[in-house]
Amino acid sequence: MISYRRARTRGRWWVACLALLVAASPARAERTLQDEILESKYRHGDYGIYAAWYDPVAAQFNEHGSYAIPVGVKVRLRWKARIRFEGEFAYYRTSGEPRPILSTASTPEFDGVQVTTGVQGMLRTSGLLRPYVGAGLVFVSLANDFVVVRPEVYELDPTLPEVRALGRWSELDVGFHAQVGVDIHLGSRAFPFVEYRQLSGSIGLDEVRIGPARIDPSELWNEQLQVLSDEYDYSGPTVLLGLKIYF
User: Fold this and answer.
1) What is the pLDDT of residue 18?
2) Under 8 Å between Cβ of 32 and 65
3) Burial of 183 by CB count in 10 Å (0-12 exposed, 13-18 middle, 19+ buried)?
4) Which sign, positive or negative, has the C-alpha torsion 6, 61, 151, 205?
5) CB 242: neighbour CB atoms within 10 A?
6) 27: Cβ contacts below 8 Å, ≥ 6 apart
7) Span 107-131, mean pLDDT?
8) Torsions phi, psi of 229, nearest 5?
9) What does each C-alpha distance from 180 to 52, 91, 119, 122, 243 come to in angstroms?
10) What integer pLDDT is reported at residue 28 of this predicted model?
11) What is the CATH number of domain 4-246?
12) Which of 213 and 28 is assigned the larger pLDDT?
C-alpha cells in the first residue's frame, strides 16, 4: 500500500513536472489569429472530462485499496481575461477482497462523491502551455463498508462467526482544495490538461451501523484488533488528466 509520505513525494514530483512544462513554454507567446477566432466564437468557457489518481490519508481507506481512480466532469466559466469559475462532479469506488466469513452479497467497499467549486487564475492566456492556479471548496459524500470486530464476542470465543460483521458509516462534509494545472492548447476547440490538487478535510464519526444497530466507534475493533478510529481524514493528493472543450 502507498504511504502518505510516498504519496506526498509523488505530489511534489507532479508539481515539479508542471513547473518544467511552464518553464518550457515561450516567455512571451503572441496571441494568434486562431486564438482570437476561438475566443470570439466560444465566449463562455470550457467543459471537460477526466480520470484521476487519488490517495486519501485515512488508514480506513487502505482496507479497500492503495488508491482510487475518480472519474469526473467539470465546467469552467470565463470572467475577463484571467479569472475562471469552476464547478466539478467526481465519483470513485474501491472494493476490498471478499471475506469468507461474510456472504458474497455483502463485501467491503468504499464509495465517494465529490462536488468541487473554486476560482482559478490563469498565469498565461496565450501559447501552447497555459498554467493556472486555484482554490475553493470540496463537498464530499462518503460511504464506507468494512469489517469490524465485536470485542465482547471476541473475548468470549475468537473463533465464533459472530466475532466479525460488516459495519457501515456514511457522512457529508465540506473541505478545502488547492490546485495547479496546465492547459495544453493545440490550436483547436478541444485541448488536454493535467492538474495536481491537494484536498484537505476530515470527518468525525459518531456511529457505525451493523444492521439496524448504531454503535459508537470506540466500542468496536478493526481487523488488527485495535479500537476503531472516530475520524476519517480524506486529505490527500489528486492528479487529474483529461480533455476540455470550449463552449
Assistant:
1) 46
2) no
3) buried
4) positive
5) 17
6) none
7) 94
8) -75, 145
9) 14, 21, 12, 10, 16
10) 46
11) 2.40.160.20
12) 213
